[in-house]
Design brief:
The chain is α/β, with parallel strands linked by helices. About 30% of the residues lie in helices and about 25% in strands.
């Protein structure tokens, strides 16, 4: 497989090193000349010391025959532009972008980036799974990030406890899919009254998350 890596920071360096070790053909584009020389000394003459957002340098890297482009700089805008140029000008089959700000993930997917990797989101997810905080936990994303499934753990302080689901005035496009009570999973019916200790699996959108949180989680 032929891979073009845009960005020679720590992530790009180790990604390239691992790909080479696995037997793949790799070219890196790194705009910082000093960093490019260092990587070339370490990994061989596979580095193009120029701006990976520019089409001519992508062409020099052989983007036209690449199977994958991985844009992993520390700048979300650069990663988006690099992937867009590779997809639109060189028809690269698969574009993967590092997303430093999780709020940009939806935008990247809307702009036809095939996969996004968010270190911030990954670490946050690990923390949420390990620490029992009373907040919304992200379980899954659907429709390229436009719809998400979140879990809300209700305790005695939740403003929703004691109310029926139909009384909650959930945000537009949001609904309770499943209610978990003890060992049982219950369909989220409008007449179901919520109790301390219930867990709700709610389908919503990123734009409605703050509104949903205010209905279910105590400030």
């Amino acid at each position: 497989m032929y891979v073009v890596v845009v960005g020679g920071g720590t992530v790009g360096y180790y990604l390239t090193k691992e790909l080479l070790a696995a037997g793949h053909e790799v070219v890196m584009i790194e705009r910082d000349p000093a960093r490019a020389r260092y990587i070339a000394d370490e990994l061989g003459s596979i580095v193009i010391p120029n701006d990976g957002c520019e089409g001519r340098y992508q062409g020099e890297a052989g983007m036209g025959r690449a199977d994958v482009v991985a844009a992993v700089t520390g700048d979300d805008e650069d990663n988006l532009v690099a992937c867009q140029v590779a997809k639109m000008r060189y028809n690269v089959p698969r574009a993967i972008a590092r997303v430093n700000n999780p709020k940009n993930e939806v935008l990247f997917r809307q702009l036809a980036i095939d996969d996004t990797v968010s270190p911030t989101r990954t670490i946050l997810g690990a923390i949420e799974q390990e620490i029992p905080v009373h907040d919304l936990l992200h379980l899954a994303e659907l429709e390229r990030g436009e719809v998400q499934i979140v879990e809300a753990h209700l305790d005695a302080t939740s403003p929703a406890v004691g109310h029926e689901i139909r009384e909650l005035q959930l945000p537009e496009g949001s609904h309770v899919a499943v209610l978990i009570r003890g060992e049982r999973a219950i369909a989220g019916r409008p007449e179901t009254r919520l109790l301390d200790g219930d867990k709700l699996l709610v389908i919503t959108s990123p734009e409605r998350e703050a509104e949903l949180r205010s209905l279910l989680i105590a400030e």
